[in-house]
Amino acid sequence: MASIRPSAHLADVRYEIRGALTRRARELEAAGLDIIKLNIGNPGRYGFETPAHLREAVAANLHDSEAYGHEQGMEAAREAIAAQQRARGARHVEVERIFVGNGVSELIDLSLRALLQPGDEVLLPSPDYPLWSAATILNDGVPRYYRCLAEHGHLPDPDEIEALVTPRTRALVLINPNNPTGAVYPRALLERLAAIAARHRLLLLSDEIYDEILYDGTPFQPLAEVAGELPCISFGGLSKVHRACGYRVGWMSLSGDPARSAEYRDALQLLAALRLCANVTAQWAVQPALQGAPTIGALIAPGGRLHEARRAVAEGVAASAYLDLVVPGGALYAFPSVRADRLAGFDDNAFALRLLEEESVLVVPGSSFNVPASRHFRLTLLPPPAQLAEVFVRIERTLARMAAGQQARPVAAHA
């Protein structure tokens, strides 16, 4: 019998954060090796706990969680999200313009499905969080990448972005604070990007899931406040700031002139209704999360675990003969690069595989984030600082072996 062929859409879809390297790591674990997994930003797997008042809210309302809910989310949850967005300066944010989903991942797909016609283009950062590329492709869109180079602090060049705009461009995506680089976008840059969206009538999509994970006083500027009357969707959720990944609760807030996005809002509601509703049980945690006392501050302040993990990564890179790093201003990741003058011909996938098989450390190659010819790799800041210090000892050994292997290669004779 003929084998079942997958959709052709998947030919250009990749998600190496949980891909072939992760499968190899599981094989090595099954063989008895202890693998240090730095591939996923999953706080609960590193000893971080969801705040108690969120757990208590969920437990207290289990009896009222057994029926389908509103397709856009519980009203109390949406009211809390709308209040947060208005407090941040977003305009025209009302309950009917808030959508709760099973994580931001579901809402990214939904927002693009409601927007794109076949062949429409979406401006995405390179590096990007690869779900954005995947959702664009799976909804018949075309990713167009703007570079966020390390030599520019992983911040984009607005002129380069505008040069990519064509008559088919529909949206401009920002990830701020950024995954994978940790870059945090200053207000002046956001103002220039909003101006591009205004000139070309683009929908702004701002992934702000790490909005409160910031280091050394780095300020966070919400895009919606800068965008003003421009249509803008801001994405947030419980997974990172509130360490509740398994709750699968994300939201998107549609701001700007309602008249310009009324039909699009209705399309979002239709798609939300088709999947019936988001997880009702976990939505009880939204209101206490947004209206209760903040809980992330102690972790990101000097001496806090995330701050000290970031310090351990920065010190590990500074001590390396092979690595460079733009120290992250926010989020849960670092994106080091391997210096070309110390290791020519570097292959990020080959490096990641050797690091896994020879040193039992799992990282994600930079090319997995849609960076061509990448010399980068991503690791999470969630492990204890002492373990991250050990990781960089192992990384240095791997890079030294790779460099020695290059030097040992015989030089081909000229014909």
Topology:
Blueprint: H1 20-30, E1 36-37, H2 52-60, H3 75-87, E2 98-101, H4 103-113, E3 121-126, H5 130-138, E4 142-147, H6 158-163, E5 169-175, H7 187-200, E6 203-207, H8 223-227, E7 232-237, E8 250-255, H9 258-274, H10 280-283, H11 286-291, H12 297-300, H13 305-318, E9 323-324, E10 333-334, E11 337-338, H14 348-359, E12 361-362, E13 364-365, E14 377-380, H15 385-408
Parallel strand pairs: 1-12, 3-4, 3-5, 5-6, 6-7
Antiparallel strand pairs: 2-8, 7-8, 9-11, 10-14, 13-14
Helix pairs in contact: 1-14, 4-5, 13-15, 14-15
Report on the structure:
- β6 (203-207), α8 (223-227) and β7 form a beta-alpha-beta unit.
- With 415 residues, the chain is an alpha/beta fold.
- The protein has helices at residues 20-30, 52-60, 75-87, 103-113, 130-138, 158-163, 187-200, 223-227, 258-274, 280-283, 286-291, 297-300, 305-318, 348-359, 385-408; strands at 36-37, 98-101, 121-126, 142-147, 169-175, 203-207, 232-237, 250-255, 323-324, 333-334, 337-338, 361-362, 364-365, 377-380.
- Mean pLDDT is 94; it is low at 411-415.
- The protein is built from 15 helices and 14 strands.
- It has 2 domains: 8-48 and 298-407, Alpha-Beta Complex (Aspartate Aminotransferase, domain 1), CATH 3.90.1150; 52-291, Aspartate Aminotransferase, domain 2, CATH 3.40.640.10.
- The termini are far apart.
- Helices cover 38% and strands 13% of the residues.
- It is globular, with a radius of gyration of 22 Å.
- The protein has a 7-stranded mixed beta sheet, with helices on both faces.
- α1 (20-30) runs parallel beside α14 (348-359).
